[in-house]
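Researcher: I need the complex structure. Ligand is manganese (III) ion. Inputs:
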Amino acid sequence: MAFQLSPLPYPSNALEPHIDARTMEIHHDKHHAAYVNNLNAAITGTDLDKQSLEEILNNVSKHSPAVRNNAGGHYNHTMFWQLMMPGGSNKPSGTLSDAINSAFGNYDEFKNKFTTSGTTRFGSGWAWLVVSGGKLSIGSTPNQDNPLMDASDIKGTPILGLDVWEHAYYLKYQNRRPDYIGAWWNVLNWDEVAKRFAAAK
Ligand code: MN3
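Model: Output:
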């Protein structure tokens, strides 16, 4: 087995009331598990089973739709769980805060722009904060695409990602994606974003 599903880094009810336990269980144990299983099925017996996830994503335009969707799904969700924590953390500080202010004006402008990127993504996809050439930018991708993919419109190292598929919020928020995004800011782990920012620079 090339790739494995890691457990959630906190109990499934740890993000309540913002993200409910049942949604977390189905999202991790069913959706994410399926991406891992389908990715392994798609690469078994090919030379992709010796590549890292990042290598597969970097050249994804050469691979099948099954590899693209499931490699993206595995990468995106692994990152997504780590980017949340019970109760959230303090707003960004230090060099990350400086980079946000320099790219977007201030924290509130950044938050508005990122929220808009998530609410306006049509259908299923992800909103991203990306580092490229030392600079931050915001964008979104459809389906399970991400900014590491050679096929992506927005490219760079993702340091923050938000799942806006209906499976991420429908049980609690139904069609109210903006309410889900508003609640998600409360469980955001900025320390993890800062760590990824430092590594990406
Ligand atoms: Mn998802």
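Model: Summary of the prediction. The longest strand covers residues 125-132.
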